[in-house]
Design a protein that fits this description.
Blueprint (H helix, E strand, L loop, with lengths): L3 H4 L2 H35 L1 H24 L7 H22 L1
Helix pairs in contact: 2-3
């Protein structure tokens, strides 16, 4: 636990702000580097990039499919259909409000 005396010193707050600023800059620089790498990779190896994205999407779909099949109420196809229709209907209305 940090003593109250240490927490209230201006030096502590100054150092804390400095560390926050450094972390923010590091985060921004890292994201910029990742975006640049992804852009270059997509440009140079476009088919491989599409294939990797397809594999990732397939694995996510498989995980969702497996998790949902373990929920007892949703394993009934009628309940799943009604729930899916309701979700799509709500998303459509939400999308209409955004646009």
């Amino acid at each position: 636990m940090i003593p109250d005396k240490l927490d209230s010193t201006p030096d502590f707050h100054g150092k804390l702000k400095e560390v926050e600023k450094k972390l923010e800059n590091f985060h921004h620089e890292t994201l910029s580097e990742i975006k640049e790498f992804r852009r270059k990779f997509d440009k140079r190896y476009h088919l491989l990039y599409i294939f990797i994205a397809f594999i990732g999407l397939t694995l996510v779909w498989y995980a969702v499919w497996t998790i949902v099949s373990e929920i007892p109420i949703i394993s009934n196809p009628y309940v799943a259909g009604i729930l899916g229709f309701a979700i799509l209907l709500l998303l459509g209305r939400f999308f209409d409000r955004i646009v």
